[in-house]
Amino acid sequence: MQTPAGVEPDRIDLDDEQAAARWAKKLDATVEQLREAVQAVGDKAADVEMHLKGARSTTNSDRVKELGG
């Protein structure tokens, strides 16, 4: 994938609606969740991904309930 000049591939640019939508899809989040994550941890994709995963992590008891236990 060709990256436009001046754009870092591991940075999330929320000013670019198409890029934000692509990142949201890639990280399985809404654009709003992406926006909140970038506000919380900055625009590095790896940091945003960890923040989103952490926000959605489940506990073992949550998983047991999901399985009907």
**Mean pLDDT over the residues:** 82
Total beta-strand segments: 0
Main β-sheet: number of strands, strand sense, barrel status? none
Tally of helical runs:
4
Gap from first CA to last CA? 45 Å
Share of helix among residues?
Answer: 55-70%
What structural category do the secondary elements indicate?
mainly alpha
Taken together, the total number of domains comes to 1
Q: For the CA atoms, what is the radius of gyration?
A: 15 Å
Shape: elongated
Percent of residues in β-strands:
under 5%
Order of helices and strands: HHHH
Residue runs with pLDDT of under 50 for 5 or more positions: none
Write the layout of secondary structure elements.
Blueprint: H1 17-26, H2 31-41, H3 45-56, H4 60-66
Helix pairs in contact: 2-3
Describe this structure in words.
This protein is an all-alpha fold and 69 residues long. The chain has one domain. 58% of the residues lie in helices and 0% in strands. The protein is built from four helices and no strands. The model has no long low-confidence stretch (mean pLDDT 82).
